[in-house]
Amino acid sequence: MTSAATLESDSPAATQTLGERLGRLLEAGDVVALLGDLGAGKTAFVQGVARGLDVTSARVASPTFTIVNEHPGRVPLYHIDLYRLVHADELFELGFQEYLGGDGVAVVEWFDRFPDEQPAERLEIRIEITGEQSRRLRATAHGARAAARLERWIG
Ligand SMILES: Nc1ncnc2c1ncn2[C@@H]1O[C@H](COP(=O)(O)OP(=O)(O)OP(=O)(O)O)[C@@H](O)[C@H]1O
Ligand SMILES: [Mg+2]
User: Taking the complete model, does pTM exceed 0.85, yes or no?
Assistant: First the structure.
């Protein structure tokens, strides 16, 4: 089973296309953690995932004041951004755990801010800025389910 892979992107559109290809493979209960600096391209990637999940609702943007944006699609997309969250307690108020491993796909930006809350089973994608328009995506599968998704995604 593949547990790690490195992918290159040379434009925002290319990052979205990578996200879209993954989105087509995702199923209810999947969790994707997106890591990387401000402006790395995490939200750009989620926009692609949304397309792959046939999300037709409003634009997928970085949630500014909300932590979770729900988008109906082939299965629901829960786009979560933990950047502005200060205390882990707030996660409980959000009902955060119910978004993970539930009836939809959870894509979580800045999951590394709350490492203890990360489920054992998840596909982690770290986006590195390698140039003005270039990005390196390092994907690591945690668990067999994530490994299966990764294998199909890059295969
Ligand atoms: N290859 C690329 N892939 C993705 N984004 C790119 C790429 N090249 C340039 N960019 C630019 O980088 C920015 C990425 O912004 P985006 O909001 O997706 O980042 P983010 O990781 O979600 O940041 P934040 O942590 O603030 O939420 C956009 O302005 C985009 O145009
Ligand atoms: Mg973002």
Answer: yes
Core vs surface per residue 68-93: b (16+ CB within 10 A) or e: bbebebbbbbbbbbbeebeeeeebee
The closest ligand to the CA of 69 turns out to be 2
Residue 50: which domain range?
Answer: 4-154
Ligand 2 centroid vs 80 CA: distance in angstroms?
9
Neighbour count for residue 1 (Cβ, 10 Å): 9
The per-residue pLDDT for 76 is 97
28 CA → ligand 1 middle, Å: 26
CATH number for the domain harbouring residue 60: 3.40.50.300
Index of the ligand 1 atom closest to the CA of residue 127: 21
- What's the structural domain count of the chain? 1
- Residue linked to tokens 């993954």: 22
Tell me if 126 CB under 6 Å of ligand 1.
Answer: no
